[in-house]
Specification:
This protein is an alpha+beta fold and 108 residues long. Helix content is 55%, strand content 16%. This is Nucleoid-associated protein FEE95_11000.
Amino acid sequence: MFGDMMGMMGKLKETQQKVEATKKRLNTVSLEETSPEGLVKVVITANRAVKEIQIDEILLNDKEQLEDYLILTINKAIEKATQVNETELSAVAKEGMPNIPGMDNLFK
């Protein structure tokens, strides 16, 4: 019984280390989102840190339009980054989980 418990604890610790390594790696994964007309471009990491914003000069004269483009493009970039982040982390977590009946759907 203790062998099984110790094995499970070791497996959980190993999984935790893999999750942390994956989080670090996701800091290096860059995703790009561009507004429909290409007037705003946002570069974001898979951990949702904005790294770069490029704005076409045409938008610099219209504050309201610039704000709308920024909100739209940043939100789309965050959505894309969140999807990559969740997919990567859930794959690592699922891979390391012990086979416990009834918990197989937890990380889908």
